[in-house]
Every structure is written in C-alpha cells, then in structure tokens.
Amino acid sequence: MRCKACIIPISICLAGSVPNVLAQQGGAVAATSLPGPDDPIKAMVDRLDLEKYKATIKGLTQFGDRRQGTERNRKAIDWIEAQLKSHGCTNAERIKYEYNPAPPTARDGGGGARGASPFGPSGARIRGYRIPEGVNNDPNKQPDLELRELNMEPSTPGLREEVYCTKIGTTHPEEMYIVGGHMDGIGWGEAANDDASGTALVMEVARVFSSPDVETDRSIRFILWNNEEAGLAGARAYVDQRRDLQGKENPPRSGKYPEPKWLGMIQHDMMLFDHGMPRADGTMSREQRPEADVNIEFQMNSKMSAQSQALAWAFEQANEKYATDYPAAVGNHMTNTDSTPFMDAVASISLRENERGAQIGAGWDPQHHQPTDVYTTYYDKDFRLGLNAAQTTLAAIAQLTGARLKK
Ligand SMILES: [Zn+2]
C-alpha cells in the first residue's frame, strides 16, 4: 500500500526485498553522472557488441518466421538453447504446455487494417498521420522464394515448448528478475525485428551475465517465450504453471529454488525501428531518426502499476547513465506482449522501439507482421537502437541484482 501515492518518479516504490537503486538519491531525481573508469557495470555493458548482436539476430532468421507449432519453430528453440549453453548459461530448462486453439482468429488468420479510432491498443491516444496496421497472411507477398518455402509449413495444434536458463544469485538465490523476449513470429518474413531483435537482446545479456567472472546477489532468469503471436500462450502457461512455486526451496534444505520469487518481469519486443511518424503521403523515412529512443512502458491499469512504474524509472536512469547513443522514455500503456500476463502479480515493463499503442498502433513500423520484416531491411543505426536497449537492460538488472566482477 505504501506505493499507492507514487505518481511520479519514485524513490519509495521499490520497497521490500527489491534493491532500491533510486532511494540512494534521497528521494529527488538527482542528476545522472557518467560511469567512472572503474565502474564494474560499465565494464559489463562494454561487453555487449553491435556485431555480436547482429550476428545473433541473423542466426535466428535462418529459421524463417519461426511460427509456433512448426518444425522451424522447434529448430529455433534447439538453436537458442545451444547458444545459451555455449555462453555459459548451462542450466537451460523448458516449459511445456498444450496449445489447442479455436479455429483461426483475425490475428492469426489474416487480419486487415485497424479502424480510424483515435485510440490504439490499450487506450493510447493516436495523434498525427497514420497508415494501416495489420497481419500479412499471404505467402505470395513474400518475393524471396526460398524464404516463402521455408515458411510454408502451417502451425498444427499440440505440445509446445519454450526455453529458459537462470543465473543463480549468490546471497539471494530465492529471488529473481525475469528477462524475456518472444522467439516466435508471423507475417511471412523472417520476424527479424518482431522479435529476433528482442530474443537476441535477451541472449546477449545472458551471455554477459553468464561469464564466469560475473557474480550477482539475486537470480536472473532469461526466457524466450513461444506463442506470443498466438495470444501470449507461452507466457500465460508459465504464469499458470509456476506462480505458486515461487520462493519454495525444493528439495527442502537443498539451497535450490526451482522458481525464485518474482521481483520483476522485463519484456523486449521489436527493438530496432524508430523512423518516426509516417508522412502525410503515407511514406516513411528510410533512416533511423536521430531522436530515436527506447520506449519503456508499464500498464497503468494493472494491480502492480506503482511498482511497475518504479521499475520503469529505474531502467530510464540506467539508460541515462550507461546507454551510449539513444535515450529512453517512459510510458504508461504497456500492451500486446508477454509482460501482460505478469502485470497483476509483479512489477512488469516492456522495452520497445516505439510505444506499442499510440505509435506502432498508428503504423510507425511498416514491417510489423509483414514480409518485409527481414534482416536485410535494417541498417546499423537500427541495430544500434536495439543494442542501446540491451545496454539499458543489462545496466538496470546489474544494479538491481547487485552484480559485480570477481577479481
Ligand atoms: Zn512481438
């Protein structure tokens, strides 16, 4: 209840067991200083690398759009698990669940453009020029015949899996932050931005935290959700299966916590493309706009709204201190992503290239769920925005979990 009054940046909301990085500043928002030469978090952030990030995105696109319920999706999960293990995150496990949907919905079976409502998803008000937003479900719109063929197998109902691995905290293994992105896609492209960009971000952050010389007080779970594009089914299955296991030592007195208590859930979904608003004639700038930013969103209509907002500002401050090129902005309309099933249980935020409701909802990302969402669509300035989001998450999670470098 103590968080109820928090409307603006917040030093008092990361209460209880959550390390309070903001309270160190005495309540007011202090000026951010740049990291000093011996700052261990800067040393960890410096281990992120544009070429490595791009290579991981490229690696994911070899499996086409990775649509859930297909062989290419299952192969991608195996590949992700092997990558995590090779980075030192060796305790990879899988969530298993059944996905047996009703006959295709508009979203999964070929939707059209949204209407002209002034409000986008989650009630975010849309302003300015907009272009239609929808899901391509026509294979013939993919001009690359090899890619079209790769994406041809349709989704079939049944067993689904999703993979995660965990950095175990040294002093509080029983508590964790969840860092996620969804590995499945749709639209007959390579789902390079939506969401190989978020998946690769999680994998690269996992690589840095899994280095043998990095130690954290609290645990961090890296998870690559499946089925996001089919109703967040993978994240929902995780919440259903594991919420009641939180913080329980199992076996008793083993020091092992199969499901550490959730301290926060951070989702990464569409990290690359911030070229601004469509022009009046419906065209878009070819270049990343210089004002591009990382959009950190929480959901104001959730039970954990105050705690989520506090977490969002902790990320914004980490961005200000540690991200090299692009700033972050906080918004209150988090929606349409895997943090949604968590938002009434734990502080939950999403990081994106644009606001999901007001901006992506108005067509600011014309590749969204389209055949054009392929690796070659993007330039280094696009990839660099994703890298800056990775720097933001790595720095924030390092602060929140008490990360340090062993001498
Ligand atoms: Zn997505």
Structural class by helix and strand composition: alpha/beta
Order of helices and strands: HHHEHEEHEEHEEHEEHE
Poorly predicted runs of 5 or more residues: 1-28, 108-113
Percentage of residues in strands: 5-15%
The 3D shape can be described as globular
Which ligands occur here? zinc ion
Oligomeric status: single chain
Mean pLDDT: 91
Helix content: 25-40%
Helix segment tally: 8
Number of strands: 10
Radius of gyration: 20 Å
Specify the biggest β-sheet: 8 strands, mixed
**Separation of termini?**
41 Å
Report what the structure shows.
Helix content is 27%, strand content 15%. The protein has helices spanning 40-45, 50-61, 71-86, 145-150, 192-209, 233-242, 305-322, 380-401; strands at residues 93-99, 158-167, 172-182, 214-215, 218-225, 261-268, 294-297, 328-331, 348-352, 404-405. It is of the alpha/beta class. It is globular and about 60 Å long. The strands form 2 sheets. Strands 1-2-5-3-6-9-7-8 form an 8-stranded mixed β-sheet, with helices on both faces. A two-stranded antiparallel ribbon has the order 4-10. Helix 2 crosses helix 5, helix 5 (192-209) crosses helix 8 and helix 7 crosses helix 8 (380-401). Helix 7 links the parallel strand 7 (294-297) and strand 8 (328-331). The longest helix has 22 residues, at 380-401. Residues 182, 194-195, 228, 269-270 line the site of zinc ion.
Keywords:
single chain, 407 residues, alpha/beta, globular, disordered N terminus, binds zinc ion
Topology at a glance:
Blueprint (H helix, E strand, L loop, with lengths): L39 H6 L4 H12 L9 H16 L6 E7 L45 H6 L7 E10 L4 E11 L9 H18 L4 E2 L2 E8 L7 H10 L18 E8 L25 E4 L7 H18 L5 E4 L16 E5 L27 H22 L2 E2 L2
Helix pairs in contact: 2-5, 5-8, 7-8
The site of zinc ion (ZN) has 6 residues, from helix 5.
